[in-house]
Amino acid sequence: MDIVYLVFDTIFGDALPVTIASGDELIAQMNHITSVGFGLYPPQSLSEKPIMPLVSNGTISQVVKLPLLQHSKCPEVALFSVSAACWNGSSGGGIFTRTSDRRLLGMITSNGRVDATGTIHPQLGFIIPSNVILLGWEAIKHGGEVHLSDTVIRLWRMQKTHEDVHENIERSGGLKVKL
């Protein structure tokens, strides 16, 4: 996954700068949030009136904390899921607080999808948190790079990040109880 950081000297139209939320306390399970994205309905031509973003309200459903960086032991928010609708094409859109200051909590990356059927669930969105966005921005400003942990990379690729308890029991020959 790539994130592009753009800096403008001028504000276009009535667009306002976004305030990025920082701190794990802002990304807590069951916080009320709003998703904003431009998926689903692309304009048919460049001459058409610009479409408005698709907006949906929901909550933060799950927060995953892992050590973000290689050689780090300190868990930080690495990903969270939301119940607000995130339609196809909304990737890159934002998840915002539902407070009056509308701070950016994270960036929409994908929907939930059932591999067996290919069914996409727009009410299950996966979000890269603002702390990761800020980490990348700070690295760019200082000419550095961010080296994420292998576990975070697997998580973002929706690959297995832990050993399943059932697999561990099967591999060891079953559950043994001593009476």
UniProtKB/TrEMBL annotation:
InterPro entries: Peptidase_S1_PA (IPR009003), Peptidase_S1_PA_chymotrypsin (IPR043504), TYSND1/DEG15 (IPR039245). One of its GO terms (cellular component) is peroxisome. One of its GO terms (molecular function) is serine-type endopeptidase activity. GO terms for biological process: protein processing; regulation of fatty acid beta-oxidation. It comes from the Eukaryota. This is Uncharacterized protein. The lineage of its organism: Eukaryota, Fungi, Dikarya, Ascomycota, Saccharomycotina.
